[in-house]
Amino acid sequence: MYAIIESGGKQYRVERGDVIDIEKTETSGKKVRTVAFDRVLLISGEGGTKVGSPVLTDARVSGVVLDDVRTPKIKVFKKKRRKGYRRTNGHRQDLLRVRIQDIEL
Predict the structure, then answer these.
(1) For 41-72, what is each residue's pLDDT tens digit?
(2) Nearest of 11, 14, 10 to residue 2 by alpha carbon
């Protein structure tokens, strides 16, 4: 059984036991150890496939937070030619590592 969920503007295909990295949410700063995904777009299993329009109202995917992680640093470089303008910045995105526990329909 698998589900397609939406979190942080991105869609993820998840099964029970999968480990995914999602963008931090507003509850990330608090010591919440469980995460519930209510925006379930599709569930497929033995009973067939159910597709929401846009979401399934009675479906829910729950997971447990494993760790806070950060992506590798990327460099942001801006330049305007012949003007002597150069700026270098770096960015690392904060993520939550989540293990999917249950898919409920």
Answers:
(1) 999 988 899 999 999 999 999 999 998 899 99
(2) 14
The C-alpha angle with vertex 85 and arms to 80 and 91, in degrees rounded to 5, equals: 90
Residue 18's identity, in one-letter code, is: D
Residue closest to 34 by CA, chosen among 10, 1, 60 = 60
Q: Report the distance separating Cα 103 and Cα 62, nearest Å.
A: 7
Q: What is the pLDDT of residue 87?
A: 98
Query: Domain ranges in the chain?
Result: 2-104
How much is the average pLDDT of 17-21? 96
Cα atoms in the 13 Å half-sphere on the side-chain side of 41: 11
